[in-house]
Design a protein that fits this description.
single chain; alpha+beta; Protein Transport Mog1p, Chain A; 7-stranded antiparallel beta sheet; globular
């Protein structure tokens, strides 16, 4: 009986997610149309930010390539970034704060920055990855956990998706390969993307470099609440946090009640330029909320499918 109920609920959620995806595609096309009209205001941070903050961040990203993105890069030291298109930039951040490095379909990589020396420099001290629903955490004191279980032996895990060899941890899926190198008290990262960004525009402090657009160096736009949070309201990534403890489908909180689908479609009020800009901003925020709900529903659907296989027949 549990198996039947799980299958029915999973199918229902998939159907809802499919409808939301169609809505999101329509909104994305509308957003592209608005962007092509000239001035536009959007940003990577919290949708509650004021208009001056929005106008100062010019990277409104919209997926235009159906071929995906390729590129290699790295994050090292305190921290220096080399983007996928050869961009060079530094993101110091704040010690003790957590930031999204990469967000794309099936993968989310966050890092906790830590103090390095006494002059305000920082390094990457902890990493949290959600890889196709599995949670991987690495700390610079040599600890690796997968779905809460500590891994002490070198080897291959999650059917080869995670490999541990000495001071190197490599995670990979169909589009990304990322190696964390433990330097003793901080991490360096090597990143490779292959045909990435198929379903959404990659985001994050490094992920943003894949499309070759201008780099947003305001780290506050990429801050997350914990190592397994998804980014809040980043344009191009449907990433609002799901509620609870923020640990994806392993969360003790969240669930269906945490998914807001009570959206009101914005309406254009007035015919001034400012009215049009306000309407455009509202439409972007609407699209982000719809996309976030899609991700949340898909996460629950996948979790239910996984659970179905574990229920005794």
């Amino acid at each position: 009986m549990s198996n039947i109920i799980s299958n029915l609920l999973s199918t229902a959620l998939d159907n809802v997610a499919g409808n939301l995806k169609q809505d999101a595609k329509i909104l994305e096309a509308f957003a592209d149309l608005l962007k092509s009209g000239g001035n536009h205001h959007c940003h990577h941070g919290d949708s509650s930010s004021n208009s001056s903050s929005s106008s100062n961040s010019s990277n409104c990203r919209g997926k235009t390539s159906e071929e995906g993105y390729d590129g290699t890069g790295r994050i090292w030291g305190d921290p220096h970034f080399e983007g996928a298109k050869g961009q060079k930039y530094d993101i110091q951040g704040e010690a003790g704060h957590k930031y999204n490095l990469l967000s794309d379909e099936g993968i989310n990589v966050n890092a906790k920055f830590q103090a390095y020396g006494s002059n305000g420099a920082t390094t990457v001290g902890e990493l949290g990855v959600i890889l196709d629903g599995d949670e991987i955490k690495a700390t610079a004191d040599g600890k690796l956990t997968i779905n809460g279980k500590e891994i002490t032996e070198d080897g291959s895990y999650l059917n080869g998706a995670v490999e541990k060899h000495g001071d190197k941890i490599t995670i990979k899926n169909n589009h990304y390969q990322i190696t964390f190198t433990d330097k003793g008290d901080y991490f360096d990262l090597d990143l490779k993307a292959t045909d990435a960004g198929q379903d959404r525009e990659p985001g994050g402090l490094w992920g943003q470099s894949l499309d070759g657009d201008k780099i947003d160096t305001d780290y506050k736009h990429f801050e997350v609440s914990n190592l397994f949070s998804t980014p809040k309201n980043q344009v191009g990534y449907s990433g609002d946090e799901l509620g609870g403890n923020g640990h994806g489908h392993h969360s003790n909180g969240g669930g269906l009640s945490s998914i807001n689908t009570d959206f009101e479609v914005p309406e254009l009020e007035g015919d001034t330029t400012q009215d049009a800009l306000n309407f455009q901003k509202a439409m972007f925020e609407f699209a982000t909320k719809v996309s976030a709900a899609t991700t949340a529903i898909n996460t629950l659907g996948n979790a239910l499918k996984d659970a179905t296989g574990k229920v005794p027949q």
